[in-house]
């Protein structure tokens, strides 16, 4: 009888431990808000994934190609400013050194860093100190969107605030420095 109770206890403990929430360990990630390395990618719930596919040189500077199904942008990190090369010109897409509510011009967009302290829950974990960037073309209606970058992760959340409004689109899988994380 003791053996039967022991076996039942072991099986019960096994099933209870299987029901625990599995958290993906994000240990070992550095604090870069946009880890740029060929092979890195970010897959979201709803929108196209972003993949760092190659490097190219423009004006004697190395840029990383971030490719989606609809676009390729060439970016580099220059003193914690993510600079994009586009049609022969450069502009800052993400300024990680900016103060909250600072604005700058990126392509036709006015970009505002609206927060440096967002907490996003993803993969059973709360990711703190996410930066939220708001993009707007003042002359056009219904084209606004926001992108959140997380330390060590990069693209963690996206929200279209214009005609394509449909809620927040969260990261579901990423590959950073050769390691795949399914969240």
Account of the protein in words:
The chain is 9% helix and 52% strand. It is mainly beta. Strands 1, 2, 3, 4, 5, 6, 7, 8, 9, 10, 11, 12 and 13 form a 13-stranded antiparallel β-sheet that branches. A hairpin with a 5-residue loop joins strand 1 (41-44) and strand 2. It is globular, with a radius of gyration of 20 Å. The termini are far apart.
Give the strand tally: 13
Distance between the termini: 43 Å
Overall pLDDT metric: 86
Q: β content, as a range?
A: over 45%
Provide a count of the helices.
1
Radius of gyration: 20 Å
> What kind of sheet is the major sheet?
13 strands, antiparallel
Q: Which structural class should the secondary elements be placed in?
A: mainly beta
N-to-C order of helices and strands: HEEEEEEEEEEEEE
Label the overall shape. globular
* Uncertain residue ranges: 1-22
| Helix fraction bin | under 10%
How would you summarize this macromolecular structure in one to three sentences?
This protein is mainly beta. It has 1 helix and 13 strands; from the N terminus they run H-E-E-E-E-E-E-E-E-E-E-E-E-E.
What distinguishing features does this structure have?
183 residues; mainly beta; 13 strands; 13-stranded antiparallel sheet
């Amino acid at each position: 009888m003791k053996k039967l109770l022991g076996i039942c206890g072991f099986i019960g403990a096994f099933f209870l431990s299987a029901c625990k929430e599995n958290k993906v360990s994000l240990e070992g990630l550095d604090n870069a808000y946009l880890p740029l390395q060929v092979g890195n990618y970010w897959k979201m719930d709803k929108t196209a994934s972003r993949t760092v596919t190659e490097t190219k040189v423009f004006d004697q500077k190395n840029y990383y190609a971030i490719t989606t199904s609809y676009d390729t942008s060439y970016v580099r990190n220059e003193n914690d400013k993510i600079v994009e090369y586009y049609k022969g010109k450069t502009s800052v897409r993400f300024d990680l050194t900016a103060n909250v509510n600072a604005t700058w011009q990126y392509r036709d967009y006015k970009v505002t860093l609206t927060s440096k302290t967002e907490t996003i829950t993803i993969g059973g974990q709360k990711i703190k100190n996410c930066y939220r960037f708001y993009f707007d073309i003042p002359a056009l209606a219904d084209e606004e969107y926001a992108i959140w970058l997380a330390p060590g992760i990069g693209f963690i959340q996206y929200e279209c605030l214009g005609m394509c409004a449909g809620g927040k689109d969260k990261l579901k899988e990423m590959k950073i420095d050769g390691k795949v994380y399914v969240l």
